[in-house]
Amino acid sequence: MELLAVVCLCLLTWSGTTFAAGNGPDVIKMVVKEGDDAILPCSLSTRENIVQELFDWKRDGQKEVFMYDDGDQYNNGRTGQDEQFRGRVSHFPDQLQFGDASIVIRNTKVTDSGNYTCDFPRLQPIRRGLIELVVGASPKPSIITLNQTKDWALLQCEVQGASPKPQLQWQDSGGNMVPAKDPQVTDRGGSYDIILQTTVTKTDHYRCVATQEEINHQVHAETFVHLNGAAPKPSVTILEQTHDGVLLQCEVQGASPKPQLQWQDSGGNMVPAKDPQVTDRGGSYDIILQTTVTKTDHYRCVATQEEINHQVYAETLVNVTGEFFYLSTVYIQICLSFCC
Questions:
Q1: What CA–CA distance (Å, rounded) separates 89 from 104?
Q2: Is the dihedral of CA 11, 14, 15, 18 positive or negative?
Q3: What is the pLDDT of residue 45?
Q4: I need a labelling partner for 215 at 20 to 30 A (CA). Which of 51, 129, 235, 250 fits?
Q5: Domain housing 218
Q6: How many domains does the chain have?
Q7: Which tens digit of pLDDT belongs to each residue from 102-135?
Q8: Rounded-to-integer distance, Cα 118 and Cα 112, Å
Q9: Rounded alpha-carbon distances, angstroms, from residue 101 to 51, 114, 165, 175, 204
């Protein structure tokens, strides 16, 4: 009789299988995230009934994980189980008749990582299965702004207690890698605290991505940085006036991110305008928007920056009475703040 490794798909992430030296049994490497359940497979290739047999699971050759002996086991009064596993390990009674001695460890912890053996000591020769279990912790990164001027911001990403060791990377909103300083890594006996800093010079959404390839896991945190004149004040001027109408111009300078401009009447209706004149100055924008109005009314030029949930406008009154036009400009700013 030989042991047959049973592939268990429940809540497992396979990272590969290694082999023991010589003619020993295969060593199956299994990786799960902390908090998930892990099924450790162990079955006889003959699929013979083991209801009346003895099998014993240990970790690292010492800690008693689970023992079954002809119906007697740790969950029904048997003593000797290591405190670490008490109440978290069980077998599959309905599978014993098929030679299946697999167990499940529930709510796994990083400290459950180790080498597990499944032994049938009464069988000759003794049969043994070997499992290497890796339990990974995947905390979400935290982001803080350490320093900021109108031209740049120093960002810091930190991950604490991660296992296995993650790779950290800063990315912009397009998913492009942002250059960063060398990471600061602290090894706490198999779990890791990592700090990664970067300096950014453009208004954008930035994310810190933590990747743990061994457990096929990725998590990120995101922050928004706005630099170089976001929320500019629009200026409204009268360029030309005739008996038939008034040509108005709205101008925004040094805006970042790029705003959308729109003319509106007092009822909030859009007023048709010419195509905007846009000048890109390396990430900040100068924009001019012109319109011709023919009625006495309050008109406003609205600048909207959706990326930072911000809107600002300037308003003017045009009074059309024959050849007389009266123009007064009032500046009103609305800053819309939204909960993240």
A1: 6
A2: positive
A3: 87
A4: 129
A5: 142-225
A6: 3
A7: 999 999 998 899 999 999 998 877 788 899 998 9
A8: 16
A9: 10, 19, 32, 46, 55
Q: Tell whether 340 is covered by a domain.
A: no
Contact status, residue 192 vs residue 110, Cβ threshold 8 Å: no
* Nearest-angstrom CA–CA distance, 255 and 230: 5
CATH number assigned to the domain comprising residue 29? 2.60.40.10
pLDDT score at 322: 57
Cα pseudo-dihedral 42, 48, 51, 57, rounded to 10: -20
Write the CA distances from 205 to 69, 138, 181, 228, 246, integer angstroms: 59, 23, 19, 15, 40
Q: Which of 206, 225, 244 is the last residue of a domain?
A: 225
**Overall pTM surpassing 0.85 (yes/no):** no
Counts of helices then strands in the chain (DSSP H, E):
0, 28
Boundary of a domain, candidates 136, 158, 178: 136
Which of left, alpha, beta for 80 (phi over 0: left; psi -120 to 50: alpha)? left
Same domain, 219 and 295: no
